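In response to reviewer comment 3 from the previous cycle, which asked for concrete evidence that the modeling workflow produces usable outputs, we include below a single protein chain processed end to end. The sequence was submitted unchanged, and the resulting C-alpha cells are shown without manual editing.
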Amino acid sequence: MKQREFRYCPTCNTKLQKRELTANSKQRWKCIHCSKSTIKLRVDLIKAFILDRFVAWLLGKQSQIELKSSFTDRTWRNQTAWCWDIIPKPELTGEVYEIILIDGIRVGSLVCLIARTPTAVIDWLWVSYESSNNWNTIS
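The workflow returned the following C-alpha cells.
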C-alpha cells in the first residue's frame, strides 16, 4: 500500500487523522466522516519477522509447539506457507577448491544433488532422479 493511498479512508475516501496509540503502541488513524479506524501495517517488516521465525524453526531444534507463543498450529502454517516457496541459491564466487564432495539425497519424490567442500555448500539442484546429465547441469 502506498503512503498516499493509506492517508485516505478505504470506505469513504476522506482524509484520515492521527489518533491515539493502540495497546501494541501502533499509531491509530481515524476517519472523521465515517468514524472507522485503522492502523498502517508494514508488510515488509511483518514478512521479514515471519521469515526469521521460520528459518529459526527450520534450522533449530524446537518443535512448532515449543516455538509458538500466542497462535495456533494452523495460524503458524498459514503464516509460513509462502516461506516454503523461497528457493535459496548459493552465491557463485569463482573460487577453486581442492576437494569437492558430491552427493544425492532423496527427499520425498525428488532428489537434491549437492556439490560441497568439507566446509561449505557450493551448489545444489532439485531433480526427479539422479543421473550424469543432471549432475552436468550443476554449475
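The mean pLDDT is 81. We consider this sufficient to address the reviewer's concern, and the full set will be provided in the supplementary archive.
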